Amino acid sequence: MKKIEVVLSEYDVNWEEQFLYEKRSIQEVIGHAILGIEHIGSTSIKGLKAKPIIDILLGVPSIEVVSELIEALRIIGYEYVPKPELMERRFFRKGLWGQGTCHLHICEYNSSEWIDKCLFRDYLRLNAQAADEYETLKEQLADHFQYDRQTYTKKKEPFIQKIIAKAKNNDFL
Fold first, then answer.
1. Pairing state of beta strands 54-60 and 99-108?
2. What are phi and psi of 38, to 5 degrees?
3. N or C: which end of the chain has fewer CB within 10 A?
């Protein structure tokens, strides 16, 4: 299997518009099941370098309803990717393999998964120093693990958990 290259792009002001387009498309096909929809990940933080993939967090009443949404999401280009290691959320992708344009993460609205992902985003939006530290870490990891996206992602986790803990303690300084 071909390794997917980690390529970071300068912040693109169009990322927000891409999210809004995807949000509207998703709402058109499964709006009845949505309790919340958020732009998360590095593309949601102004000025931050990122892999040019729009991360979308979708909140539903129960993780059990996701199986009923797979076909409707497939019609608008989202492919369900079973990941047994993800207990609290379901993962969908859009775009060619290795050149995806969107990642859709579906979890229960206001679950710990939902809260943690929003806290991380909000903390970086409010704390330029933490956002700069995260960008530096991502650049270093992208250089070191250029052809190993899985390890690149895994190595970011300690920083992400540290920021979530700070946000939960209202430590925004």
1. parallel
2. -135, 145
3. N
CA atoms of 15 and 79, how far apart (whole Å) = 21
**What is the rounded average pLDDT of the residues 138-145?**
96
Radius of gyration of the chain (CA): 16
| pTM of the predicted model as reported, rounded to 2 decimal places | 0.93
Which of 6, 105, 111 has its CA nearest to residue 57? 105
Which pairing describes strands 78-80 and 36-40: parallel, antiparallel, or unpaired?
Answer: unpaired
Residue type, 111: S
DSSP state of 5: P
**What single-letter amino acid sits at 41?**
G
Closest Cα to residue 61, out of 114, 25, 119, 23?
114
Q: Are 89 and 106 in contact (CB under 8 A)?
A: yes
Question: Identity (one letter) of the amino acid at 129?
Answer: Q
Q: Which residues pair with 91 in a beta bridge?
A: 105
Q: Which parts of 39-85 fold into alpha helices (H)?
A: 70-75
Q: Are 85 and 38 in contact (CB under 8 A)?
A: no
State the average pLDDT over residues 79-99: 89
Nearest to 159 by CA among 137, 132, 128: 137
CA–CA gap between residue 158 and residue 72 (Å, rounded) = 35
